[in-house]
Amino acid sequence: MKFPIFSHLKRDSKKSGFTLIEIMVAISVMTVGILGIYALVPHVVSLSGVNLDRFRAVQLAREGLELVRNIRDTNSLEGVAWDERLTNCSGGCEIDYNDSAPVTYGDRYLKIDSDGFYNYENGQETKFKRKIIITPNPNVLNVKVQIIWPGKDSPFEVEENLYNWR
Do residues 111 and 100 make contact, with C-beta atoms less than 8 angstroms apart? Predict the structure, then answer.
């Protein structure tokens, strides 16, 4: 008795499987693909570290601008000259949130405290330095913030003009 349902299961001896050459080619292609991916992993890991340093440098530079902006705004609220405490930084200054005015640049490393804030007094030392250069002009302060760290992208610099908006 023949079952027509199973007639397609008949084997054709000429098409019974893969040849040795086809298997070798498939293994070679897979090996090249896996080795390519394996070779990229260390490069991706090193780039992620570089990008993290750049990101931190950008944020530290923005923070430096914000600190100078805060001093300018505080001067206006206190009724003193808008550029008070900001005109002596042409040679470079340092400032963090614990300071009410910039201090002369001391080539110090920023530290990060247990709350994640960067400062110069306490915490774990980082590899970043921040130098703020303020060039006063009539009714304008040109503020440059440089972030310096060991690396090929160092220093990172941001520049902005602050105006007497009062």
Answer: no
Question: ∠ at Cα 113 (107, 156), nearest 5°?
Answer: 40
H helices of the chain, where? Answer: 20-78
Domain ranges, residue 117: 19-163
Establish if 113 belongs to a structural domain: yes
Give a yes or no: residue 105 inside a domain.
yes
14 in a domain, yes or no?
no
Q: What pLDDT, in 10s, does the model give residues 82-130?
A: 888 888 888 899 988 888 888 889 999 999 999 989 999 999 999 999 9
pTM of the predicted protein model: 0.71
- In the chain, how many domains are there? 1
Write the CB contacts of 141 (distance below 8 Å, at least 6 apart in sequence).
Answer: 68, 72, 83, 86, 87, 134, 135, 161, 162, 163
